Every structure is written in structure tokens, then in C-alpha cells.
Amino acid sequence: MNVSSLLDSVVEIAVETGKFIKSQRDILSAGDIHSKGVHDYVTRVDKESEQKLVRLLSVLLPGSGFITEEKTTTQKKQAYTWIIDPLDGTTNFIHGSPPYAVSIALQHKEKTVLGVVYEIAMDEAFAVAGEDIPTLNGKEIKTSDVRSLDSVLMATGFPFINFEKLDPYMAVLKRFMVETQGVRRMGSAATDLAYVACGRYDGFWEYNLNPWDVAAGALLVKNAGGRVGDFRGGEDYLFGGEIVAASAEVFDDILTIIKAYF
Predict the structure, then answer these.
(1) Which of 2, 41, 49, 95 is the most buried (most CB within 10 A)?
(2) Cβ proximity of 76 and 178 under 8 Å
């Protein structure tokens, strides 16, 4: 199957779902917000959005499997499997603070072959399929061409559940604060990766992530000319819970700092 033929439809589904999410923001109530654990929240909107995505994607690609954050459908891998985060950045959404995004990836036999990240507040759809160059609202994008660490703008996600690696994380954060142009924390890993893909950020690292946080964004970065790996430089970034992504020219410099502490 030519997955590129699905891309426009997946973008439409992501945008439609994003507009639903946006329409719910001003009517969100305290009763719509529930805790999944310490500092980990889910809303009625997360679940309803996921159900909407599953329904529409099932029609688009009958017989496909699903791996989803909120587990509103049976979690089962098939030859084609969707990996979905219906609302990446739920805490931001609760507080009315962007960014927050819909993230959809499609895997074929465990290889990611399609990715869409729709950042709702800015109405920006990042999309890629197969080996094609990614696009932002239809225009091709690429990673930055910075070549020295002191010109890099980094992005990260703060630990908020698992603090076992907080000390090495803080050591890495200190290094990047001192040796780069700065570090930003937006609260949406999917958006962070999309921003690396289009050159707004030069690098991103975070641990304690899930496949639905990174699957679509990682493909965007790779096809935009960047590199993606785990903290050891390997390929276990999707299910391994840690990721570093950057433009190709500075990836090794960034990884060297991370490897020194993790």
C-alpha cells in the first residue's frame, strides 16, 4: 500500500479533532479533569478525542491496530498499527497555555511510515509519509543547519513523574544552559519534535516518554534531515522511554553531553 495516499486524509482527521479540542477549552470544567497519578492528568476531552480518532482512522484503514495513550480501544498491533496521542500537552490544555497537539503515527510491521502532528493553538499541521520530505501546512520543511553547539537552541521536557534520573538530567540541563544559546520547555514532546523538524529548535532531549509522544515527531525529524536516537545513540527511542533528536550537524555534540551523565 502507498501510505502517501493516506496522508491528506490523516491530516484532515487530525485537524478536525484539533478543532473539536479547541472548541472544548472554554467549556472545560473541574469535573472534566481527572488524575491518572501524581502530576499526570487526563480530561474528558482527551478521551473523547481519542475515540474520535480511532473511529475515523478505522474507517480510513480497516483492520488496522492501535496503540493509544488513553486506552479507549483495544491495544493491539496489526500489520498496520496507529500510534496515537489525542492531546499531547494535557496540562497546558487544562491551563489554557499552548502548545498542545494531536499526534498520529502509522507503523507498518514496526516501522513508522507516516506521521502527523497538529499543533492546535497555532493551527499548524506537520505531516510526512514514507521517505518524503515533511511539510508544514503544505510547505516543505527541514532541520536547521547550525554547526556549533554555541549556536544551538535546545528544547526539553522536565521530569514530572519519574524523578529517579533527576540528578543526571539536571547535570545535562546545566551543561546545555551554559554551552548553548538556551533551553526551552513547552510541555508537548510532539510539538518539540515538530519544531526540531522545521528548524525552530536545533535539538531536543527528554526521558520518561511513551511511543505516542514521539512516534510521529521522530519521523518528521528524520525525514527533514535530522537524526534521532536514544541516550546511548541507539535506536530504542520509541519504546525505550528516552529520546534525543537534533539536526545532523550537532547531533553528535548533543549526544556526547547526554551520554556523559546518563
Answers:
(1) 49
(2) no
Rg (CA), the chain: 17
Domains, the chain, in order of start with CATH, read: 4-140 (3.30.540.10), 149-259 (3.40.190.80)
Work out whether the CA dihedral 216, 221, 222, 223 comes out positive or negative.
positive
Per DSSP, 76 falls in state B
Cell 499552548: give the residue.
Answer: 98
Could you tell me which of 134, 101, 45 has the C-alpha nearest to residue 213? 101
Cα(195)–Cα(199) distance, integer angstroms: 6
Sheet strand arrangement including 135-136: 65-68, 80-88, 101-108, 111-119, 124-129, 135-136, 139-140
Strands 182-184 vs 226-229: parallel, antiparallel or unpaired:
unpaired
Question: Does a cis peptide bond (omega within 30 degrees of 0) precede residue 99?
Answer: yes
- Each residue's pLDDT tens digit, 106-165: 999 999 999 999 999 999 999 999 999 999 999 999 999 999 999 999 999 998 777 889
Residue with cell 499526570: 40
SS (H, E, C) 139-159: EECCCCCCCCHHHCEEEECCC
- pTM of this prediction exceeds 0.90: yes
Cβ–Cβ < 8 Å for 215, 103: yes
